[in-house]
Prior knowledge:
By secondary structure, chain A is an alpha+beta fold.
Amino acid sequence: MTTTSTIKKGTVTGIISNLVMAVSDAPVAQNEICYISIGEEQLLGEIIKVIGKDIFIQCFESTRGMKVGNTIRFTDEMLEVTLGPGMLSKIYDGLQNDLKKFDSLLIKRGKRSEALDTSSRWHFVPLVEQGKTVSAGDWLGEVKENAIPHRIMVPFKLSGRYKIKKLVDEGDFGIDDVLAILESEEGENIDVKLWQKWPVKKPLKGYVEKVRPFAMLETGVRIIDTLIPIAEGGTGFIPGPFGTGKTVLQHAISKQADADVIIFAACGERANEIVDVFTEFPELDDPHTGRKLMERTIIIANTSNMPVAAREASVYTAMTIAEYFRNMGLKVLILADSTSRWAQALREMSNRLEELPGPDAFPMDLTAVIANFYARAGYVFLTNGSTGSITFLGTVSPSGGNLKEPVTEATKKSARCFYALSQKRADQKRYPAVDPTESYSKYLEYPEMQNYLHEHISALWIDMVTRTKDILLRGREVHDQINILGDDGVPLDYHVQFWKAEVIDFVILQQDAFDTIDAMTPIVRQKYMLQLVLQICQMEFDFKDFEEVAGFFKRIINKLKQLNYSTYESEQFKKIVEEYTLIINEKRIA
Amino acid sequence: MEYKAFQPIFYNITRINKATCELQCHMASYDEMAIINGKLAQVVKIVGDQVTLQVFSGTEGIPTDAEVLFTGEPPILKVSEDLAGRFLNAYGKPIDNGPEVQGEPRMIGGPSINPTKRERPSELILTGIAGIDLNNTLVTGQKIPFFADPEQPFNQVMADVALRAKADRIILGGIGLQHDDYLFFKNIFENAGAIDRIVSFINTTEDPSVERLLIPDMALTAAEYFAIDRNEKVLVLLTDLTLYCDALSIVSNNMDQISSKDNMPASLYSDLARLYEKAVQFPAGGSITIIAVTTLSGGDITHAIPDNTGYITEGQLFLRRDAEIGKTIVDPFRSLSRLKQLVIGKKTREDHPQVMNTAVRLYSDSANARTKLENGFDLNDYDKRCLSYAKEYSEKLLAIDVNVDIEDMLNTSWSLFSRYFKKEELAIRQDLVDKYWKD
Lengths: 590, 439
Ligand SMILES: Nc1ncnc2c1ncn2[C@@H]1O[C@H](COP(=O)(O)OP(=O)(O)OP(=O)(O)O)[C@@H](O)[C@H]1O
Ligand SMILES: [Mg+2]
């Protein structure tokens, strides 16, 4: 972008909701940020289209009271986030205002707040020596932020190589202190502080190489880890009609997932769901570090009643912050709820711009926009050989629950795991309502992932998972048959097969997100349970009639559910296993 | 609404639609109110010197040389204690022959609440209706609609809920209310001696449909006054938001906007969310709970209106007629209160969550049995027990005329369990079965 010393001004020529039309004599750039004045208030906007002299701006705040002739100040900058220590535990809006820093109950427009805390002191430890040559993204030092070594990196905006002319010794510093001076090959000096800025719409790439994901990201959710695993650095999405459990599933994952940093992008959803997180997380323990969950969490909150344009910004803000942490060699998990709201924001704007509409009036380039966004996730190798990852899991809210709508279809082309929530399973309260046969993980087909599972869980694991899926599928088929032909119209064995699938369903697939023990199943326990359940599925039993079959398996399910509610390997747990073995032996053919 | 008296000016009106008209003007500000030919209107679009006004009572009779007064202010409501007991129209003007309401002018449709200033809802709202209290427990600060076909008694149920809930203030937003229903609400509130706790904003079917667009914002502005300024527990009733959405679509069609599914504006989700998200619990004790009605056509919940609503609200309550018992019930399958997990088993008895889930699961087994029966298959013993259970469950717990306390609802559930099932068929945690099973 050009840098001019004079202030670039423009004037408003029209207003339709959050679309502002303007003219300016100065040159402007696509995606340039501007401030529109209404009296004392300065409203933030972004240029989204230019036709001849006409500039189209999406305003991130309410345009109430705006008039033709109001002045606009262009900034020469794109929408940027401030990156540095102090972001963890924060609740930001889509434009990275720290919401806790606002005093009033209602969000006043035109108000901004600092993303980082200017009063905090951080203990800086250098990681390199003065005189070394470095380039963008290299680690200069670190400060400890909660459980995380927060690396202070060479600003990403720099290109080329720099010599470290000066680097401070270990000590306590504030956000604005100069920690290092870098000298470019041309002799230009650059100050490095604890923070730096980056435009959200540009992928932040400080890494050497992005590789195919190969490791499983443990989530503690059985149906995911056991049957449809997501890879660290992978992508997935959860489409489902309203109320089928997208948000509960994401929250469950966020509580247990094996990640260093969790970023919630609450995009056009309910404010109370954010309240849930910031009420609960400061109390809950992070199972991996023993610290509080909130310490590894960042919330980007653009709730559904906040200005629509900032919804789009919110997902990009989340992604950029994630990329920054990934470059510190950390595992980041982004949970975006719901990406459909972001697509709808694009649609509202595209309609106001009177662009040619695509299917369901969504913009024509929807698929490309979504694909570009998902492509920013991934598992990377950094210049110093460390690895970092961003795993992205978004929800999709298909209108009318119809999975053939444009946002679901576009997302399906980009995300590699598909967790379809089924209305039927939700109605039956079979939570999480992930449909075990429709859903898939492409990562299971990756040889590198298979190797990983082989080494980290068991050599038989993939085989067990395949068998489990077969039993579930078979269960579904025989269930249809029983429904068509009647209980008496099918062989007794059909009932046995149906009930074996039900055991898997009730004991492995269903998981109570609100029970402290059941909610959380580490992979060792998942392995134990799957082995147990598959043993039953292999056994042969002696039954008189189908009523006996149902009665028997219900007792089994009942016992195994009690098992799920007990602490792993506790006395109670062992006692239930014994009781269960007794029931099994009543009917089992040796 | 009262506005400072500027000088009205004659304008050349260049375009007139059913709900909007366009004129040439250089000074209009976005969203401000205007009075055109004596009718209230709002600026909804400005392109250069072309200003589009949305005329709330319709454009009938507006001439091409109309007199227009721009007020320079967005729509406002005057708020004070004086609102109590009053019946007002969409503009906040009395329709009860009382005096004008005096108070501080507040702009309606104002900014959103900072999420970090909210408190997590945790206070039960008890209604005595087991289909709600037991299966879909409500809490203060929640937003939830009734999904109902037009013939169902949703207004009655809503009035029952409102009067039994221990709210400090009830705000009724009547959107396209039938005149008879308006009188129904008036009577039932008067008879309950509750009129002083109630503020009503009423637009009936006799009033112009675009005026309806103001009702929810008026009601919610009043609600914010009582919840924020006076720390009260406020219950807002909005009936029927389907008619609100219809009015939105009239306006957007008049403005030549590309409509999305079911002829609704592409912004429908945001438009509805803006209203519902006013539901809130404040740490200081004040709260706004929104109970709304969304009528369905032919029970279709995939239609854009219920669909978008479902994605915004914290659950929904479905009313359905159970032919077998001849009563309206709260359908346990489609109904859901998403905030119930914040209170059940915590503020209610420990067995509540499991009892509720089990009761509904067994009821769904009865639905399977019924399908079998309809397909002409023999029923097994379990199926038969499920069917008998379902009938009694429906009668004793799901029917909307039930009015008992929550402890009784749980006890009734346990008696039904022991009458029709074996312990192991429940799949309820053993310690709870040991404690509550009724031999
Ligand atoms: N794993 C679970 N265990 C128990 N209950 C669940 C589970 N998942 C979902 N539920 C129930 O379903 C309700 C709705 O879930 P959730 O809010 O996650 O739906 P959603 O798909 O995010 O809906 P929306 O699209 O409207 O946001 C929850 O409030 C809860 O009652
Ligand atoms: Mg959700």
